C-alpha cells in the first residue's frame, strides 16, 4: 500500500488536500472551574473593588472582610445556588485564611490576588450592566 496517494486520489477519497486551510468550523470554549471560596468573590461596583484591593494590599484580609458585607447588600456572586448567608461566611473564611497565613507571606500574596480578582470581576460587571437611563 502506497503511503502517499497518487494525484487525484485524495479528492476521490473525500480527504481534504494538504494545501487547503483547515476550516472545520469547530469552536472551542474554555470555562474556568472555580472552587467555592473563589466563586464567592462578589461582583462589586468598580470603586468599591479598588478600595478592597487597596485594603488587601496593606492589611491582608481586610478588603476581603469588607467585600463579605457587600454580599449582604445584594452583590452577585458565581454561587447562585447558595444562600446569601453561606456566601457571606465563605468570604469571612477567606478573610480569616488570609489574615492567619499573612505571617508566612502566603496570606498577603493571596490577599493581593484576591483584591485583583475583585477588580477584574468589577470591570467585567460594569461592562455587562447598561448605564442608568435616569441620569440622562
* Number of continuous helical runs: 6
Strand content: under 5%
Largest sheet: none
Give the N-terminus to C-terminus distance in angstroms: 75 Å
Give the overall shape.
Answer: globular
Considering DSSP H and I runs of 4 or more, what fraction of the residues is helical? 40-55%
β-strand number: 0
Average of the residue pLDDT scores: 82
What Rg, in angstroms, do the CA atoms define? Answer: 24 Å
Low-confidence stretches: none
What structural class results from the helix and strand content? mainly alpha
Q: What is the element string, with H for helices and E for strands?
A: HHHHHH
Fold topology:
Layout: H1 9-13, H2 36-39, H3 46-58, H4 62-72, H5 84-100, H6 106-128
Helix pairs in contact: 3-4, 3-6, 4-5, 5-6
Protein name: STUM protein
Membrane topology: Multi-pass membrane protein
Transmembrane segments: 46-75, 87-114
3D structure, described in words:
With 136 residues, the chain is mostly helical. It has a domain at 44-127. The chain is 54% helix and 0% strand. It has helices at residues 9-13, 36-39, 46-58, 62-72, 84-100, 106-128. Helix 3 (46-58) runs antiparallel to helix 4, helix 4 packs antiparallel against helix 5 (84-100) and helix 5 (84-100) packs antiparallel against helix 6. The longest helix has 23 residues, at 106-128. The termini are far apart.
Keywords:
single chain, 136 residues, mainly alpha, 54% helix, globular
Concise structural overview:
The protein has about 140 residues and is an all-alpha fold. It is about 55% helix and about 0% strand. It has a domain at about 45-125.
